[in-house]
Amino acid sequence: MTDETHFVEEIADKSDDYSRWYTDVILKAELADYSPVRGCMVIRPYGYALWENMQAALDARIKATGHVNAYFPLFIPESLLQREAEHVAGFNPEVAWITAAGSEPLDERLAVRPTSEAIIGTMYGKWVQSWRDLPILINQWANVVRWEKRTYLFLRTTEFLWQEGHTAHRTEQEANEEVLRMLDVYRDFAETELAMPVIRGRKSDAEKFAGAAATYTVEAMMGDGRALQAGTSHSFGQGFAEAFNISFLDMDGERRHAWTTSWGSSTRLVGGLIMVHGDDSGLILPPRVASYQVVIVPIYRKDEERDLVFEAVEGMKREFVGKIRCHVDWSDHRPGWKFNEWELRGVPLRIEIGPKDVAQGQAVVVRRDNRAKEPVPLSGLAGRVPELLEDIQRSLFDRAVAFRESRTHHVKSVDEIAEQIERERGFFWAPWCGSAECENSVKERTGATLRCVPIDGGDEPGACLVCAKPAPQTAVFARAY
After folding, report:
1. Which of 152, 350, 392, 437 is most exposed, with the fewest beta carbons within 10 Å of its own?
2. Residue 214, SS3?
3. pLDDT exceeds 60 at position 362
4. Is residue 466 classed as helix, strand or coil in its secondary structure?
């Protein structure tokens, strides 16, 4: 029997040390662990099941919009990467290079994929000859490597998992529609599956993706008031098509370059999920993506009691199979230890059942989000559990929206941000003239970056928060991960 005097190992309080709390939760809930490779993590089975559920939900949305999956090589010849100068300049500090194979030096260095525009653009240049070959709508699920100086489990690691969509279109209008369509896919995925409210908007030129004509983003607020970029969608104009010769014979007989886009999200969303919903006891997982939606905790002392409870548990499992992701904890830990353990792991619903419950024909159902307990007849579990899971999903989203609203400030000057951000981090909506100088001034004075210019409304036009010149747009500023 394991020593259970402290039940589940202690995790830091969110309010005392948010960074340590985040790391404690990941390690002790067994989502991931540090690996012997610098900056890389091992995603453990419980964390990988969570990622698989997220991946499946997003992949279904991507395919529903007409995209198909493919796979491209991990290694990119240096000559291909060099074709798009701005793109290379943006990624060069993070690129890992292969210079030898065994004991033989390579004739040309190979980059370990930091992103796939170069290799995919090269293939599109080969495949596209006529307007009839367009559009190309391809997504890939892959790993990428970016040599980060400072790493943070899930949020920023040297190697991470993601999906990256790459499309080519006949017209600029089609490409622009694609960019915004996929941005809305990310919004719907984040809000519907992850219960994570986001703001859709356009990045400033300083914050856009290297080589992009425009970058759009969905920005979420974490539990400490910082922003997290939860997905991006990029318009490349014709720049990448020109660099990689993606050209076609158009309907009128003229040869033209395609208009291309790219969009992606990654395992950093797992980190976002933890920070948006977790509490001092650990994870709170939204039911739609939770590794387990329900954990059943049998309670008994004697063998005959176990047999009685076992029969009831087997009945529950039959009701849930194919409908609810369920786990039964038959381990030899005490019930109190199990309750704490599954709270730490964030399972949305816990079902407790002992011999007295069986005699009464019921089980006790406990919600993770608010710890409310409810006795439910065994005959009614199949109907009540899905209702509770849907209610938890809605409640988590509503709670996250309320938190974001409580940390959202509409300000008129950089002085207001500087004064408030030290007391409480959050989103600061402010009029911005559009100049890089004013954007950089806010960053230098407050540590807040321009997260986006929101698509869905904003404040009335006013005077720029820095220079006081007319500001036709509102920008959202925040400190970010």
Report:
1. 437
2. strand
3. yes
4. coil
Per-residue tokens: 383:
């109907």
Q: Backbone phi, then psi, for 199, in 5-degree steps?
A: -110, 130
**C-alpha pair distances (Å), 11 with each of 43, 163, 279, 289, 334:** 20, 32, 10, 23, 20
Q: Which two tokens stand for residue 312?
A: 């009831």
Per-residue pLDDT reduced to its tens digit, 263-293 = 999 999 999 999 999 999 999 999 999 999 9
Amino acid found at 272: G
Overall average pLDDT of the 103-129 stretch: 96
Q: d(Cα 184, Cα 360) in Å, to the nearest integer?
A: 49
Q: In this structure, how many other beta carbons lie within 10 angstroms of the beta carbon of residue 127?
A: 12
Are the C-beta atoms of residues 378 and 312 closer than 8 Å to each other?
yes
* Contacts of residue 77, Cβ cutoff 8 Å, sequence gap at least 6: 108, 109, 110, 111
Would you state the structure tokens that stand for residue 400, as one six-digit string?
A: 């996250």
Contacts of 415 (CB under 8 A, 6+ apart): none
Contact predicate 31/46, CB 8 Å: yes
- Whole-number Å distance between alpha carbons of 297 and 299: 6
Report, as an integer, the average pLDDT of 94-99.
94
Q: Residue 194: which residues within 8 A CB-CB, separation 6 or more?
A: 54, 269, 272, 273, 276, 286, 288, 289
Rounded to an integer, the average pLDDT of 213-238 is: 98
* Surface-to-core class of residue 3, CB atoms within 10 Å of its CB (0-12 exposed, 13-18 middle, 19+ buried): exposed
Confidence label for 458 from pLDDT (cuts 50, 70 and 90): confident
**H or E element, residue 187:** helix 172-192
Domains, the chain, ordered by start:
18-277 (3.30.930.10), 294-388 (3.40.50.800), 408-478 (3.30.110.30)
pLDDT mean across residues, the chain: 95
pLDDT at 91: 76
The residue among 72, 10, 79, 26 whose CA lies nearest residue 281 is: 10
Q: Are 197 and 299 in contact (CB under 8 A)?
A: no
Distances (CA, A) of 54 to 50, 195, 267, 442: 6, 12, 9, 35
Distance in angstroms (rounded) separating the CA atoms of residues 79 and 111: 10
Q: Report, in this order, helix, strand and coil percent for the chain, each rounded to 5.
A: 35, 30, 35
Contact 255, 208 (CB under 8 A): no
Give the tens place of pLDDT for each residue, 199-217: 999 999 999 998 899 999 9
CA–CA separation, 313 and 330 (whole Å): 10
Burial of 107 (0-12, 13-18, 19+ CB in 10 A): exposed
Contact yes or no for 298/350 (Cβ under 8 A): no
